[in-house]
Amino acid sequence: MTASPLLAPAPPDRVRQSPPPRGEGVSRPRDSSGTPHGEYRPDIDGLRAVAVLAVVAYHTKAWVLPGGFVGVDVFFVISGFLISGIILQRLQKGTFSIADFYARRIRRIFPALSLVLVTCLAVGWFVLLPGELADLGGDVAAGAGFVSNIRFWTQTNYFGPDVDAKPLLHLWSLGIEEQYYLLWPLALAFLWRGSHRVAPMVGLMVVSFAISLTLSFTDARSAFYLPVTRLWELLLGSLVAYAVFAHGDPARLVLRLTTRGGGDADAMRIAHTRDAMAWIGLSLIALALALLRTTSVFPGAWALLPTVGTALLISAGPKAWVNRTILSHPAVVGIGLISYPLYLWHWPVLALIRIHYPDVSYVAKGGALLGAFVAAYLTYRLLERWVRHTIGTRIVVALCTVQAMLLAAGLVLVWKAGFPARGDAVHRRIYAVDIHATDADATPSDTIAGLCMIMWDERAFDPRCYTPPSGANPPQHVVLWGDSFAAHWRPGLKRILGDSTTISQMTSAGCAPILDYVEAARPNCAVLNRFALARIAERMPDVVVLSGRWSSYPAHPQVSKTLDALKALGIPRVILIGSSAQYHQPVPRLLLMALSSGAAPTRMHPHMMPKLREVDSTLRAVAARGGASFIAPLDAQCTALGCLVALDTGAVGITTRDDGHLTPAGAIHIAERLFTPVLRP
Questions:
Q1: What residues does 304 pair with on adjacent strands?
Q2: Residues 385-415 pLDDT 10s
Q3: Per-residue pLDDT averaged across 648-653, rounded?
């Protein structure tokens, strides 16, 4: 998951075991794992600690613990066990109330979650760009509504490169757990009334696992985020809960199923069985942590390692050596007690720091994690425990009101596009650039998105993109062909060419203007490029301009194929535009960071400049061999003092809208200096 990027499940009630059911033909066990029914199990809090520390280690640096993301799967099994145990106990006593169950969930889950969401909104208001703040608003609304898994299913690969910019990505697992909490109590209460209880649970688990196994190979994102593909993990914990409920000691049950005996006379064998189950369970979790990678087919069959391991550890009971010695150690239990707020706090802290300071040192990152631990402890001691011991329905109503307000606040941020009008004039100018490129001569279709800038999987351009207006007979017809780094040149071309030239645009995100170019993430690129060449052959423009984010395409020297094809068609002039400056962060963010410590500069040093110059050198040679003109934007953008990011002090006239795309002002500035002598008829 750069994974990456996970939430510990909501803290259930203190871990308790209920007595076996009466009147159902189930004998009361004489040895209940050495623990009186209803007694707290510290080993499960210790198991929580193992899970949350694995996730924190993974999120801090994936290579530290490559399989740490399976901590969430451990949580799922624990939640299934605890929640089902609580429900079964109260069903047996005849005291189960669905309203009381939901009220308890609200008291456990809402306090820490609300605090973290409020904090993220407050921090985001001051440090995030409008687009980021609007995105955070959507994530807050989804988190407050417990549908984060559905939201991220539609937009984000958990193991993708952009997860560090999602401070609330980890809430996906809380969404799954809450969806389980919403439906499973009703289902279990229904099963309680019938004579068959285990068979339906096993059937649901098998179906869910089969779907997970299938989708893990065919649709990995759905397999990761959808509740139906994770249900089996929660149900595995539910089955363990029922085994404890009905038989008292799963170790005794294992002996009954595998050997003869298993009564009081076999106490030694029962103890050995518990220890063996615990060691096997711990080993399976350790294998998952060590062997799994972000490239593993997950969840699928690999999820059996942490889930079965967790089920075995829980089933072993508190008397197993591992459970009573390692998992029940006070230090481990202490971390387990704060596992829920720790999981809630750690990822937003790391994500917001990475967004604002991408080059943050390990020391600073360690300090941030220490802060997350402190915040988790204070949340547990001062907020969670206070709410837990507050009597009455008013606190439940208050918590629900806060969640509703957070949901509404998130939606308002989305509606208002992250409030680009906040701050002073300089900040508002920076925010405006983040939202859209503003220029009198430009429209959204001219630049990054729109009619002639394909963003998804279309396989043809609209005729308006390459057909001159009816009756028009301009002195010059120019075709702009390439990816989004070609599209951003249109305002500059319009400025220097004016009404004397018709500009056709055929640009598509992530598609270099290289014939037969194949990109796994954009299989439509080859089709679009052939389409563009066919339209050029039909219209025979005076000039074809080729541009792209060349450093992103290892095959950039193969643009020679395109030059050869255009030459064969007899296109009079072909212009190849080289690299423009690229930065490790969006330029508006870099300017905001500079403003926080003084004035915003007009020039900054981009990263990977040597690579950009090397790419340009290759393209210049390719253009010379193919009879094309070559323009190097870096020649106008950059000096020894850095590359131009603003046309004057105060960040007015910002030239770059994100990590590389030019604003209309930036495109016009460069075009007037480099393009005019080459392009004017």
A1: none
A2: 999 888 789 999 999 999 999 999 999 999 9
A3: 63
Which pLDDT score is estimated for 34? 37
Q: If you compute the radius of gyration of the chain from its CA atoms, what whole number of angstroms results?
A: 30
* Helix or strand holding residue 477 (H, E): strand 476-482
**Domain segments of the chain: what residues?**
42-415, 441-679
Place of tokens 């003092």: 641
- What is the pTM (predicted TM-score) of this model? 0.80
How far is Cα 73 from Cα 79, in angstroms, rounded to an integer?
Answer: 10
Q: Residue 662's beta-bridge partner residues? A: 656
Rounded Cα gap, residues 201 and 293, in angstroms: 30
Is the Cβ–Cβ distance between 48 and 57 less than 8 Å? Answer: no
Which helix or strand (DSSP H or E) is residue 631 part of?
strand 629-631
Taking residues 669-675, report their average pLDDT.
91
8 A C-beta contact, residue 582 and residue 421: no
Distance (Å) of CA 98 to CA 102, 105, 185, 506, 658? 6, 11, 7, 58, 50
* DSSP code for 27: P
156 CB-side CA count, 13 A = 26
Is-contact 496 676, C-beta < 8 A?
A: yes
CA angle 537, 538, 540 (to 5 degrees): 65
Running DSSP on this structure, what letter comes out for residue 155? T
Helices (H), 570-627: 587-596, 609-626
3-class state of residue 586 by DSSP: coil
What is the secondary structure of 44-55 as a DSSP string?
HHHHHHHHHHHH
Contact 252, 246 (CB under 8 A): no
Q: What is the 3-state secondary structure (H, E, C) of 277-342?
A: HHHHHHHHHHHHHHHCCCCCCCCHHHHHHHHHHHHHHHHHCCCCHHHHHHHCCHHHHHHHHCHHHH
In terms of DSSP bridges, do strands 573-577 and 501-508 run parallel, antiparallel, or are they unpaired? unpaired
Give the pairing type, strands 638-639 and 642-644.
antiparallel
CATH architecture designation of domain 441-679 = 3-Layer(aba) Sandwich (3.40)
pLDDT for residue 471: 57
Helices 227-247 & 172-192 angle (0-180, nearest 10): 50
For residues 491, 493, 499 and 502, what is the CA-based torsion angle, rounded to 10 degrees? -110
What φ, ψ does residue 37 adopt, rounded to 5°? -60, 135
CA distance 667 to 446: 12
**Which helix or strand (DSSP H or E) is residue 132 part of?**
helix 130-144
Q: Give the burial string for 535-573 (b: 16+ CB within 10 Å, else e).
A: bbeeeebbbbbbbbbbbebeebeebbbbbebbeeeebeb
Rounded distance between C-alpha atoms, residue 242 and residue 237, angstroms: 9
Helix (H, G, I), strand (E, B), or coil: what is residue 502?
A: strand
* Predicted local confidence at residue 474, as pLDDT: 63
Contact 237, 78 (CB under 8 A): yes
Is the CB of residue 515 less than 8 Å from the CB of residue 544? no
**Residue that has been written with the tokens 């909490």 in this structure:** 181
Residue 274 is encoded by which pair of tokens?
Answer: 């518990």
Rounded to whole angstroms, the Cα distance separating 6 from 8 reads: 7
Q: How far apart are CA 452 and CA 607, in angstroms?
A: 30
pLDDT at res. 446: 46
What Cα–Cα distance (Å) separates residue 397 from each residue in 106, 107, 394, 401, 577?
A: 9, 10, 5, 6, 61
Strand arrangement of the beta sheet that strand 543-547 belongs to: 453-454, 501-508, 476-482, 543-547, 573-577, 629-631
> DSSP state, 498?
G
3 state SS of 269: helix
Measure Cα distances from 600 to 354, 659, 676 in Å.
21, 17, 30
Give residue 269's pLDDT. Answer: 83
Tell me, what DSSP letter sits at residue 585?
A: S
d(CA 76, CA 586): 37
End-to-end CA distance of the chain: 53
